[in-house]
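Design job #97: recover the sequence.
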C-alpha cells in the first residue's frame, strides 16, 4: 500500500541509494525548510508525493476506531480536489485551478473516495471523483497510476475499493467488454508457475511476462474480493491452496493470491522489500497489507504469523514513517479483530492522533443516574409549563369575557 504510488517509489529509491535507512519511503523525507505545512495535514514530512494518500489513510483509520477526525483535517482533504473530480498527490495552493501541470492520479483519487465515503456527508465530492475514475478506465478494464498510463494491479485494486465505497458495482464498470476483475485475472500467475505460483504481478513486462510481486498480490487479493482498505476478517476458509484455472474467477484470484502470501510469510513472518538497495530488509507496510488481505480472504490462521511479527517489530518503522504507517497497522489490527490500542504494547490510535490535528471528542454517554436526573428535571419543567398553560388559559378566558362585555 505504501509503495504503490510510482512517484513515491522513485523518491524512495533515491533516498535509499543516498544511504538512508532501508525502510524509509518518500513519506519520511524531510520537507523543504521554506515549506509551511497546512495545519490540517497529518505528518510533518514533505507531502509532495503522498499528502492525499496519507491523509486519507489517517482519516479512515480514525473513523474505523470510532474517532471523529478534526474538521480541518477533513477540510484539507476535500480542498485538494480538482474541479474535474480528480485528486493529485498534493497541491500546495488548493485555491488555484488545476491546470495541465497538476499531475492528478488514480491512487490519490481512489484513496480520498474511500475516506470521504466512510466519513459521510461528501456525496458530491465522491460522485465527481468516481465519475473521473470511470472516465480514465483503460480498455483492459483496469487503471494505471496516471490517466492513460498502463494498467497495474495496485491502481486497479484501489479503484475497485473506491467504487465499492461509493456504492458502485465494480463488475458493472466496463470499458468495452472488460471489467476490473478481468484485468486482475490477467495479472494472476498460474498455479504451475515456477516462481510465484498464484501471486499477482504489478503489470506485465514489455514482453508480456508476469513476475510475482508481493505488494501487488496483497492489493490484488482485496481488489478481487471487491474490498477496500477497511475490512474485517472473512469467513474462516483456511489455506485452500492454489486453484488452477485457465481464466481464474475473481474468487480464485483472491484465493490464489492469499495462498502465495501465506507461503511468503511462513518462514520469517514478514515480506521482504523489493526496493533497490533494500536487499533482505523487511517490508513492514506490505506485511501489514498482507495481514489485511489474508484476513479478508478468511485465512486468519495464516495472517496470525505476520501480525504477531508486526507487533514485535513494527513500532520503530511506524514512528519513522508517520501517519500512513500507523494507519496501516491500525487497519491490520481491525482486520484481525485485535485492539489497536494494545499493539505489542503500543497505542496506535494515540500515536496516529499525535501526528495530526486532534480528533473531536465524542459526545459523553449519559449514565443511568444522569438519565434519571434529566427525566426528573424534565418532569419538573413539564409540570411548571403545564401550570403556566392552565393559568394562561384562565386569564385568557377572563380577558375574553371582559372583551365580550365591552362589545355589549
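Job complete. Output follows.
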Amino acid at each position: 500500500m505504501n509503495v504503490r504510488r510510482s512517484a513515491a517509489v522513485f523518491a524512495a529509491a533515491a533516498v535509499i541509494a543516498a544511504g538512508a535507512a532501508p525502510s524509509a519511503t518518500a513519506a519520511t523525507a524531510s520537507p523543504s525548510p521554506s515549506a509551511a505545512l497546512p495545519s490540517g495535514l497529518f505528518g510533518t514530512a514533505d507531502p509532495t508525493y503522498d499528502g492525499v494518500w496519507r491523509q486519507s489513510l489517517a482519516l479512515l483509520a480514525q473513523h474505523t476506531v470510532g474517532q471523529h477526525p478534526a474538521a480541518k483535517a477533513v477540510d484539507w482533504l476535500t480542498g485538494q480536489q480538482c474541479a474535474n473530480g480528480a485528486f493529485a498527490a498534493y497541491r500546495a495552493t488548493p485555491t488555484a485551478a488545476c491546470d495541465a501541470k497538476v499531475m492528478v492520479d488514480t491512487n490519490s483519487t481512489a484513496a480520498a473516495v474511500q475516506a470521504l465515503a466512510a466519513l459521510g456527508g461528501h456525496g458530491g465530492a465522491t460522485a465527481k471523483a468516481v465519475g473521473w475514475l470511470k472516465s480514465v478506465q483503460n480498455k483492459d478494464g483496469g487503471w494505471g497510476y496516471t490517466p492513460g498510463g498502463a494498467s497495474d494491479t495496485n491502481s486497479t485494486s484501489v479503484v475497485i475499493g473506491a467504487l465499492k465505497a461509493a456504492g458502485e458495482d465494480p463488475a458493472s464498470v466496463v470499458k468495452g467488454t472488460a471489467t476490473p476483475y478481468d484485468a486482475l485475472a490477467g495479472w494472476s500467475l498460474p498455479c504451475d508457475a515456477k516462481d510465484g505460483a498464484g501471486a499477482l504481478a504489478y503489470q506485465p513486462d514489455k514482453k508480456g511476462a508476469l513476475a510475482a510481486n508481493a505488494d501487488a498480490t496483497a492489493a490484488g487479493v482485496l481488489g478481487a474480493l471487491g474490498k477496500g482498505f477497511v475490512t474485517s476478517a472473512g469467513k474462516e476458509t483456511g489455506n485452500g491452496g492454489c486453484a488452477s484455472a485457465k481464466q481464474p474467477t475473481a474468487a480464485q484470484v483472491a484465493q490464489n493470491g492469499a495462498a502465495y502470501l501465506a507461503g511468503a510469510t511462513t518462514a520469517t513472518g514478514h515480506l521482504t522489500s523489493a526496493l533497490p538497495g533494500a536487499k533482505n530488509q523487511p517490508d513492514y507496510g506490505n506485511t501489514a497489507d498482507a495481514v489485511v488481505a489474508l484476513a479478508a480472504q478468511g485465512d486468519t490462521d495464516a495472517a496470525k504469523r505476520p501480525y504477531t511479527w508486526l507487533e514485535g517489530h513494527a513500532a520503530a518503522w511506524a514512528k519513522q514513517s508517520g501517519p500512513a504507517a500507523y494507519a496501516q497497522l491500525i487497519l491490520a489490527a481491525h482486520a484481525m479483530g485485535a485492539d489497536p490500542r494494545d499493539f505489542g504494547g503500543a497505542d496506535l490510535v494515540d500515536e496516529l492522533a499525535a501526528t495530526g490535528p486532534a480528533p473531536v471528542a465524542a459526545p459523553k454517554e449519559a449514565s443511568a443516574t444522569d438519565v434519571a436526573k434529566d427525566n426528573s428535571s424534565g418532569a419538573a419543567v413539564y409540570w411548571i409549563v403545564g401550570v403556566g398553560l392552565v393559568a394562561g388559559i384562565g386569564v385568557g378566558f377572563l380577558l375574553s369575557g371582559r372583551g365580550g362585555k365591552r362589545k355589549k
